[in-house]
Amino acid sequence: MNPSPSSIVAQAAAAVRRETDLVPEIALVLGSGLGGLADEVEDPVVLPFSRIPGFATSTVHGHVGALVLGRLEGRPVGVLKGRVHYYEGHSMAQIVLPVRVLCALGAKTLLVTNACGGISEHLKVGDLMLIRDHLNLMGDNPLRGPNDDSLGPRFPAMSRAYDADLLALARKVAAEVGFVPAEGVYCALAGPSYETPAEIRMLSRLGADAVGMSTAPETIAAVHAGMRVLGISCVTNILHQGPSQDTHEDVLRAAAEARPRFVSLVRGVVREISG
Ligand code: HPA
Question: Are 113 and 34 in contact (CB under 8 A)?
Fold first, then answer.
């Protein structure tokens, strides 16, 4: 018989526990080009994904895979520097395993970030968009298959997947830092091909403000596990004037330019988040 999802989570969590007794309050997933913040974690214990049983390793440039446990703004955090993506061929269960492990280690909040293409005309390259809601159009779901009741319920509600209090906190912190973040609906597609003109028109009509290839699975698994979620997208290219000609390097460069605001926003939210 295959091991249950919860036993895979428990085994990975135990392996992490052998390296550190830090109990992370906040799980942070750093998306494409945004991983630099992991290097600012104080007293870090760095565990490459390859050293944690069950963790898949990323094959994509810009997604160095490591779990960094330590303190940010004085708060205990577990930072996923890079993530694995569905388009790499990993199962949904593998994609959400790191979030489930951080939840098992104690994290009550997930702060998930990504690079995205801007569908809404209001978005510009370099904008940070707070995710109000998502469209999961990946054609798969991390909760498909027998439900492991010890991880969460069979049919978790997604009516408030992105926590209203965390959104309010992110707006407040952004104002203190000196900018007004965009807000909108993030649509997750499987990728890895970028969108065709017809797909961009479709996504716009469906109500997507931004599109990317991640985040929805982690959010679904986190909500399933009872975590609060804040999602922040960094707009690395715009699609409202047509499909992206941008390369992955352009995406990484645009994310790097948004870095100062991104870092201030995430640090401020981590500092002020309630336990
Ligand atoms: N499409 C999908 N995913 C993305 C994009 C895009 O244009 N930019 C960054 N991630």
Answer: yes
Q: Is 194 in the pocket of ligand 1 (CB under 6 A)?
A: yes
Q: How far is CA 11 from the centre of its chain?
A: 23
Q: Cα-flanking dihedrals φ and ψ of residue 227, to 5°?
A: -85, 155
The pLDDT confidence band at residue 262, using thresholds 50, 70 and 90, is very high
> What does the pLDDT average to over 104-117?
96
70 C-alpha to ligand 1 centroid (Å): 30
The domains found in the chain, sorted by start residue, are 5-272 (3.40.50.1580)
- Interacting residues of 70 by C-beta distance below 8 A, sequence separation 6+: 22, 41, 42, 43, 44, 45, 76, 77, 79
Q: How many Å apart are CA 15 and CA 222, to the nearest integer?
A: 21
Contact between residue 30 and residue 102 where contact means Cβ atoms under 8 Å apart: no
Residue 244 has a pLDDT of 66
User: What is the residue with the minimal CA distance to atom 3 of ligand 1?
Assistant: 212
Residues 85, 95 contacting (CB under 8 angstroms): yes
Is pLDDT larger for residue 63 or for residue 101? 101
- Ligand 1 atom nearest to CA at 213: 3
Residues 202-226, buried b or exposed e (16+ Cβ, 10 A)? Answer: ebbeeebbbbbbbbbbbbbbbbbbe
